[in-house]
Amino acid sequence: MNTLLLHCRAGFENEACAEITDKANMLDIIGYAKSKPNSAFVEFICQEPHQIQQFINKQPFNQLIFPRQWAAGQFVELEENDRISQLLTILKDYPPMGDLWLEMLDTNDGKSLSTFCRKFEKPLITHLKKSGKLIDDPNKPRLLLTFLTGQKVFVGYANQHNSAKWPMGIPRLKFPREAPSRSTLKIEEAWHFFIPRQEWDTRLALSMTAIDLGAAPGGWTWQLVKRHMYVTAIDNGPMQPELMETGQVKHIQADGFTYKPNKAVNWMVCDIVEKPARTAAMVQTWLAEGWCKEAIVNFKLPMKQRYLEVMKLTERMQDHFIDHGIKVNITCKQLYHDREEITCHLQRLN
Ligand SMILES: C[S@@+](CC[C@H](N)C(=O)[O-])C[C@H]1O[C@@H](n2cnc3c(N)ncnc32)[C@H](O)[C@@H]1O
């Protein structure tokens, strides 16, 4: 068992490979990453099998940008008859598990396996519990079975507190019919990912103030209003009339890159499609000048060397904050609702 399987968005395998190799180097883990284009997964092979455990213990999962989920384990081929018995035999070498998720890859082939996985899950749980391999315990690893086909499966596990919050790293969010745009799901997912649920009442609180740069037609503003915040929406384009009727939104037709708030606000969010370096320079000013405490911004990625570009951007911002004696937490993630972009959360700590 020397393989780390990482799920990612199809088309971003090179970025996930570059990132996991970089993290392995930093932790002195010897190995290599490999992938196939558009497969939606990457494998990292550890030269020393014992290092795999070290890797998933030491690397905080939520600091990875491109991988959506990970599991340590091995690929196995199952014969069509009695897959459960074969899995039980393989699992003899695994520790007892505290939970089970059946996962597929985020590809069309993967999606076609969802009915099979749903049907297979219940009898599998029954047998795993009977054999003592599965006990409800949040402190034991989660068994993660990733089905590539009905026969080929990655039998892996991960710490429940250091892996994806949702199966395959995909949150189940329902598009609210009243929201002005589908983009609304991006900011909702960002909050679920970046802000612990128990902190929502203090960090996404009633009567807080927010500025939404590039707000029209208002999908992000809609989420802020739903949290009972007062929002200044900056965009030359029109906002959804129903949102304006809430009385919680002030619409200003201005350039988001030159706009300065009269008073500091709790949140700045920005969904303007721009060169990432320009967006980074702008958000860095907002945080350094104290115009906002927290920010969520989208970075449109270039076509090549996307991991390297993200690293450069975040290092440049961090250097700027250090030069100004400011502490800022920066976390980036390619969210499920992101396409060619990533989402970045910044929180000023002093
Ligand atoms: C992707 S859309 C934003 C969608 C919005 N977040 C939502 O959920 O409905 C980008 C918006 O940025 C606006 N925009 C582009 N350049 C801008 C600028 N320099 N200043 C302000 N808004 C800008 C566009 O008019 C467009 O409405």
UniProtKB/TrEMBL annotation:
SUPFAM superfamilies: S-adenosyl-L-methionine-dependent methyltransferases (SSF53335). The gene is rlmM. Residues 82-158 form the Ribosomal RNA large subunit methyltransferase M THUMP-like domain. It is found in: Cytoplasm. Residues 1-70 form the RlmM ferredoxin-like domain. Residues 181-274 form the Ribosomal RNA methyltransferase FtsJ domain. Catalyzes the 2'-O-methylation at nucleotide C2498 in 23S rRNA. Pfam families: FtsJ, RlmM_FDX, RLMM_N. It catalyses: cytidine(2498) in 23S rRNA + S-adenosyl-L-methionine = 2'-O-methylcytidine(2498) in 23S rRNA + S-adenosyl-L-homocysteine + H(+). This is Ribosomal RNA large subunit methyltransferase M.
